[in-house]
Amino acid sequence: MKTRKSALLLICAATAAAAAGCSDTKTVQSSEISLLTTNMAPQDVVFDWQDAFEAKIKEFKGTSQYDRNKSRFDICDITGDGSPELIISPNDDISTVCDVYMLAGSTAAPLTSIGSFGEFDYLPELNAAGYSYEGDGFIIGEYKKQEEGIFNTAVTFFNNSGSASSGAAIRYEINNEDVTLGKYEEMLSPYRDAKAIKVGRKFGMGDDAVNYAVRCSESWGAVMTTMQKELFKEHLSSMAANGDMIDAAFEIIDLDGNGIPEVVVSTGILSSSDVKVLYIQDEALQELTVTCNTDGSIDYDPSAKIFYATDFYGKTQGWSLAGQDVNGFKPSDSSIHCGRKYELTEENINAAFL
Prior knowledge:
17% helix, disordered N terminus, alpha+beta, seven-stranded antiparallel beta sheet, 6 helices, 23 strands
């Protein structure tokens, strides 16, 4: 990561000027740093993958696979090397896989393809990615493991136990070979028990979403001051210590476009779960509680500067930290799915605010 040398210098103390030959001793007065001051603008943080990923997204939008209403993408480090990959999801059909690209030199090169419904599970503990699809009476899926930046198929699986009531002969398959139920469970239990992050369909492909994803989403560690980071970390740690928030997650994201990020906390994965929006105002950390989507998340539209949630019945409710009018709001093709990027653990809290 590099930062552009610009005139964005943080002044930490006022200095006293003295005339040449003056014998008076002047006291240096320290000035308090505002919580609303950042190190730099997110757009001034430069990563070597940005131009390549932006070019690949633009290239995809020029193909017949692109669907303005259904195509989405994600930027996520699924190799664990500290540099993210680009994940493109053409649509959310059952058979749709994600195409994953890595930075190779100055271009985005194919890494792997995997998934169903245009998304897949990333299992950071196992350096693995995969999916499981449950159809009418059967389950099918695949997991790939990554070693030295290469994804190879570790296990494919199938069973039709859901067809038992229809009198079908029940089969369990691992890597296209019949196995016992015990062997089937033994092979899949490590993947089922591991924590999974759903990836592939985070960002819409509208210009504002692409710009935010490429130029801002991974920049907050350099943008925030130490004081801001400690303020968020302290609050998140207290929430993580709450034993009732078993499936809680969080994400750093700018919800009003002013260059100062907020933190979205998803308290669970049920449609009845709350979402806490942590934001800085009046030199203090504030908390806003809102409803969530059916998976415990919210969405944000950077074009409108409105974040919103849609319930099981399709009813949308919106809010704005930028003072925008939410009446009559309709999401654009720049929507961003947010709130569940990191599991709410002490380890992830420390890592997210480096």
